[in-house]
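Same chain as my last thread, 413 residues:
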Amino acid sequence: MKGNIVVGQSGGPTAVINASVAGVYSAAKKLGADKVYGMVHGIEGFLQDKLVDLDGYLADPTAIEILKRTPSAFLGSCRFKMPKIEGHEDVYEKVFEIMEKHDISTLFYAGGNDSMDTVKMLSDYAAAHGKKQTFMGVPKTIDNDLPVTDHCPGYGSAAKYIAASMKEIIRDNESFGAEKPTICIVEIMGRHAGWLTAAAALSKGDDCSGPDAIYLPEVTFDVDKFMEKVNKLAATKHSVVIAVSEGVALADGRFVCELGDASSFVDAFGHKQLSGCAKTLADMVAAKTGLKTRAIEFSTLQRAASHLSSLTDVNEAFQSGADAVKAANEGKTGMMITLNRVSSDPYEISTSPYDIHAIANVERHIPAEWITEDGCGLNEKYIEYARPLIMGELQPLFVDGLPRHLVMKELFD
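reply #2:
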């Protein structure tokens, strides 16, 4: 691999996105790249020529191991939307100007749907204007909603945290033998796809009853049916725990959180900030039944819990980054690395580069046949799919009793 490369991170971080950066760096160095640059705060920082030579952080193999155990985005993330090419050619020319300035041959971008759209537009511009630089996508999203790939790095660790936390919440809620149950509603991330909330189903086992109901964005939310379900559960159980996606919506399209005090914030991609669904439902239950309720929102915890990351997930994130470099070294561009399931038992995957045009701006949902007939749970097909993704642990490196993280000082300059 001749010349230099650059890698960036974008969108919501995960517990293993830094393992992908480690994979890019390690593979590029093995293939002879001179410098591996990191974008400071993604493509937004790149457009400001904010780069860092990663040799200053990752030349020591111990640093690679710490980075694999560091949550969030080591390089800094962004939610910057590249404008449409027509009428904004100056923005795109700026990208290539900076690449030429630093002798960068390939740009690697780790992210989800919006990030893959950036890869698509940059590679399309390069093809249309005779540019020699190449672009590769590295999959990342706890939402697990990228198409084509079997699953996305980041999902397994988030699912592991969600399932483990649900077990702990259920155990806590079952501790009290009150005559009337406490109704505990747990809000889990997921705007239009319920992959994260589905992970609550993994908590069920011989030592845990699992959640009493799971509500996904794939199923239209009916307030009356929800209340009917709660009343039936409350009549027969001394503990009720329900998992609900932040993105569950009514038949008229309104998010359930909008029935309460939802935020009006909208990001650069037009996404409403979703929060408060659990509180809205808990308040509703309390008002209509008089039962004690509790609302729990996992929020950032589900994507930042590297202390409970899945070893399978860490290894696949690293492999995705490394294989993106190998594909670029073979002359490929405008592609994303996909994970392809060979077998679930024993679990085995392969990877391959795939045309970014089939991936960018396409959202994958949970198959209807994986959802129970009543629309309030997941069946064994989902369990068979998801269980292998949460297997194994990567123990943190503890210093002074707490996990050690790798921190890039340029983020705070």
